[in-house]
Amino acid sequence: MVMRKALIAIVSYLSVVLIVYFTQRLLQYAPDNSYPGKPAQNGLSEMQEIRLTSEDGINIYAWFAAPKEQDGKIFIIYHGNAGNLLNRVDKAKKLADRGYGVYLCEYRGYGGNSGKPSEDGLYKDARSAIKWLEKKGYNISQFVLYGESIGSGVAVHMAQEYKTKYLVLEGGFSSAVDVAKSVYPWLPVTMLLKDRYDNMQKIKNIKTSLLMLHGINDKVVNIKYGRKLYEEANHPKQFMAMEKGGHVDLFDYGADDVIKKWLETQ
Predict the structure, then answer these.
(1) H or E segment at 126?
(2) CATH class for domain 2-264?
(3) Which burial class, exposed, middle or buried, applies to 164 when counting CB atoms under 10 A from its CB (0-12, 13-18, 19+)?
(4) What pLDDT digit, counting tens, does each position of 4-56 carry?
(5) Which residues pair with 213 in a beta bridge?
């Protein structure tokens, strides 16, 4: 009887592991695939919708506001795993109101775009943003890569590829494996996870100026994973722990002021 119960438990556990393995991207990504409309319909009259095609042929769109000055800084925002770019309207507006250019990148499978999100797919969509801006005559030295949550993995990867000058991470993490382990401690996450966003390994290769913002009350990505990444990063770097902040809500607590002051010192 004991052996039978043990066998049932083992089979049940392995069944769960298999289910999680084959459905893991449904757990890792939570896209809102509804089309949000044009920027002006959402309070961003200064932005335009642009259409482009990723390197593997996926049609995607983005919202863009040019900087007040042709050589001004441009924030390329790679958002997190949930919702779509519509959820980042307030962030984009606060940055645009300060005269910065803002490129709100959208991903495959989000906001009415075709395709399904994956780590490699998000990198392809991210490259499309940078290539589009370069074709418009903007220089890589103007770009401030801004990654929130899982978008921190996208931003770090792009900073490694393109050697950009500025990198800002909001709710960033050491790796998706570390975060997943904290959520599913009973699963062999290290063996199972496909989309790993291994920021720890990549950050060592990056020489950009780095600003990390993290909410002390972040319940999604514990601040310890942000600090872990920060410790591996090269100088110049700055870590700002925001007392009232949670997960990617730091613009509600003055993150735009922090970013402005940081940029002025670079």
Answers:
(1) helix 119-135
(2) alpha beta
(3) buried
(4) 777 776 777 888 888 888 999 999 999 999 999 999 999 999 999 999 999 99
(5) 170, 240
Q: How far apart are CA 188 and CA 185, in angstroms?
A: 8
Distance CA 131, CA 53 (A): 11
Cβ proximity of 259 and 168 under 8 Å = yes
Q: Could you tell me which of 43, 36, 75 has the C-alpha nearest to residue 255?
A: 75
Predicted TM-score of the model (pTM): 0.95
Instruction: Tell me the domain boundaries of the chain.
Output: 2-264
Model pLDDT for residues 189-227, shown as the tens digit of each residue:
999 999 999 999 999 999 999 999 999 999 999 999 999
Q: How many CB atoms lie within 10 A of CB 76?
A: 26
CB of 126 closer than 8 Å to CB of 146: no
CA distances in angstroms from 255 to 90, 111, 171, 177, listed in the order given:
12, 25, 12, 27
Q: Which residues pair with 103 in a beta bridge?
A: 64, 76
